[in-house]
Amino acid sequence: MSLLDVSGLSCRFGAQNALSDISFQVEKGEIIGVIGSSGAGKSTLLRCLCALERPTEGKILLDGADLTLLSERELVAARRKVGLVFQHFNLLNARSAAGNIALPLEIAGWPKARITARVDELLALVGLEGHGHKRPSQLSGGQKQRVGIARAIANSPSLLLCDEATSALDPHTTASILELLADINRTLGLTIILITHEMEVVRRFAHRVLVLDHGALIENGSMATLMRDSRGDPRLENLLADIRPTLPEALKRRLLPDPGPDTRPLLRVVLGPETAGTPFLSHLTTRFQQEVTLIQGGTLACGDELLSDMILSFSAPLSAPLSIFLDQRAHVTEVLGYVPADR
Amino acid sequence: MYRLIARLIADATFQTVEMVAASSLIALIFGLPLAVLMIATRRTDLYDLPWLGRPVGWLIDAIRAIPFIILLVLLIPVTRFIAGTSLGTLAAIVPLSIAAIPYYARIAEISLQEIEPGLIEAVRVMGGTRWMVIRYVLIPEALPGLLSGLTVTAITLVGASAMAGAIGAGGLGDLAIRYGYQRFNTAIMFAVVAVLILLVGLIQGAGALAVRAIRR
């Protein structure tokens, strides 16, 4: 049985459909990225998953218990199985870092001595030894989020939800926080659902991606397959634009739609996870005598898989065998246009 | 002569402090729960029972609309019932408190209102009950504001207690009016005003210190 089983989930606010007929499963130990532009229903999904919002229809089975059927009293207990990390940390200013981490344990009624021991353990786990006495106002953004994570996992939840957990942080801190989350996932086997609008975060971190658009789930698969198969779907291409190579402006201005007497073809080539790690550019040179220039892009790590997304410039028009080779090896071969070969 | 004046001022100071301290304390004890009630019933992420808190707000506004000197007279039967007498320092504490409770309730309400909804959500998600939200979030997070509000209330009461002289409560304000103003004794008037300034400064200073202590 899956850890989390969402089926037919719909959520309406008046006439507005925030979520419509969403179904997915999450297995124990997975890291799931939920992505979508603003207004796609991410927040509503999150609020349903931590039982702050009751869906209009559908089921949310967490560890076999249906969150949509529980009474307010039972929900209070069910929420303790879910940890939530917030974008803006939401730490209590009146409490120290240690006090903030202790809060969910106090709420759950732990005895004092056990709380102290557990808080020390958690401070060490998130790399904040010796900072326990500090107030949130004395901590940096990254440290605050570490406190937020320690607080979220204090009560050993079975599911950790991260709501734009890195969106308020700088890139360096984002990387360290993601590393911490990945570490927690590995060592504790904790299942993580990461809700974000940052494709880059999902790419580096998630085993699987759910894409929401206008309240509907439009994609559910690995990041590499998503990037590989997203051609032609404007909703996906919009989201992926951040991490996709794009043609430099200078080249774009010189781009011609049709081949001329002395032009070089510009191609976008995407290699899926099956072929991304194998020699490719060298083949173009040795087998087809093409001088190939990498204009933009390269090979990306998507979760555990590799994916190559490149814009290449070829020294000569493409021959028929070359086209066949590209069709066989590459997932996407798209001729972007032609540039005059004078430079 | 000077000894007599000093004696008068010392007695009056004691009466003022007594009235202000007692009614501030009562304002805190009754005003804070009223403020919490108004906030907790209004917020949709807490009890969401607006019909319960709204009449409390009306009552509070009604009492605050009455000029204190009128309230003093209006409340004489109530005062006699609670304090056993309608005259004297002890009796004045009743109308002062009844004026101070709604005043402080509104000030406390402002501080409680400033709490970020995210903090309430955080505790709810941890499986905290609504009562825990009040105990762990609303009160401790608003504490600096609640304390500053109490300071403001106490200082306002110093002014209001001057009118309590009308029912024989004594106090510094009463001394200034009767000896200083009505008998043209400028020396006493200035002396009393000096003591009042000192008293207000002390209350303000103590309040600021307390706020700094909890903010750390």
UniProtKB/TrEMBL annotation, chain A:
SMART domains: AAA (SM00382). This is D-methionine transporter ATP-binding protein. Residues 1-239 form the ABC transporter domain. Keywords: Amino-acid transport, ATP-binding, Cell membrane, Membrane, Nucleotide-binding, Translocase, Transport. PANTHER family: AMINO ACID IMPORT ATP-BINDING PROTEIN, METHIONINE IMPORT ATP-BINDING PROTEIN METN. The keyword Membrane applies. The keyword Nucleotide-binding applies.
TrEMBL record, chain B:
Its main location: membrane. It is a multi-pass membrane protein. Keywords: Cell membrane, Membrane, Transmembrane, Transmembrane helix, Transport. Residues 13-205 form the ABC transmembrane type-1 domain. PROSITE patterns: ABC_TM1. The chain crosses the membrane at residues 20-40, 52-76, 142-167, 187-211. It holds the Pfam family BPD_transp_1. It is found in: Cell membrane. The keyword NADP does not apply. InterPro entries: AA_ABC_Transporter_Permease, MetI-like, MetI-like_sf. Belongs to the binding-protein-dependent transport system permease family. This is D-methionine transporter permease. It comes from Asaia krungthepensis NRIC 0535.
